[in-house]
Amino acid sequence: MSRAGTRRPRPAALSALIVAALLLAVTGCAQRSSTTPPGVLNVGQISNSLAFFPLFVAEQKGYFAEEGVKLGERPRLGTGAKVAAALKSGSIDLGAGVMTDALNLARIDDKGRLVANLVDRYYVDVVVGASFAGASPSDPLDQRIRALRGKKIGITGPGSGTEALVTYLFAKAGMNSATDSELVNLGSTAAAALGALKGGRVDALAFFQPIAQQATAAGIGVRFISPAAGDVPGLERTSHGVVFTTQRIIDKKPKEVAAFQNALGRAQRFIHQADTGEIIRLLGLYLKGIDPKALTELPALMRSEIPESIGFSRSSFDTAIGFHRVTGLVKHLPSYEQIVPPALRTNAT
């Protein structure tokens, strides 16, 4: 059951609705491609979550300009489905979202391609209120999942990576998130999600990092389940935060896309090599208004999640495919060779 004004369809129907929206974008603008001038890329992203911090670093450090590409419009679109639709309409050239979005695009457009691996772990955490009863963060995973049965769980929106995690966890425990919980769509703004948890509108949140750090700093809640921390066996390493586009954009703007990739690679190496104090300073600029106490553990967290290179290992890709097969949010999943360009195929395991 879901709450956002209307009852939300179950995963299979929801997947069909998401794909239908993308198909409308495709058929409505089938011939649309990049509308930006030479040397410029419009890059849209879901929100200011940790996955997209490398883009901010590359902008702040001047890497894009040094590599020879200018970023034009930089919209925050709120959901991955909107990012994919904007990409198909030609209003953006590259989209920063999660693997779910790239796979959904590839389902209805065999020219969909990955551009960069931003986060190589599933960076959504489940957070519960400070007074949550039924299980503690130290209890076995199955017990923690079952404690969420019948609860109101805040997510960013339908078809999102946040919903996908809830679907996956409930399936592991033999439950159905559509009938055994109430999913509440809260949008992508962390402040709104934290307000919903504090005000009792939801019992738990499935939200992108650094939601757990923010909840703890504010005394609102605690991290309950974290795939990135190793809480979910088999989901320790998986391609999650990604930049994606279409082969048409790559063919039309090869120099710009290559420059973007070079700049992003530099930013990801900088995150690993820079002084911790400098990373915290940049995070404070990126996550405007965040409680400084929530920033302390983020540099080490990001270094464990953000790869030093932008390539995709087959093992991380295969884990992502297996995850989406379980959730049922994406049908007809593409192969590694189809969606990962040769230059981004790595031998890392």
Automatic annotation (TrEMBL):
<dbReference type="Pfam" id="PF13379">
    <property type="entry name" value="NMT1_2"/>
</dbReference>
<keyword id="KW-0732">Signal</keyword>
<protein>
    <submittedName>
        <fullName>ABC-type nitrate/sulfonate/bicarbonate transport system substrate-binding protein</fullName>
    </submittedName>
</protein>
<feature type="signal peptide">
    <location>
        <begin position="1"/>
        <end position="32"/>
    </location>
</feature>
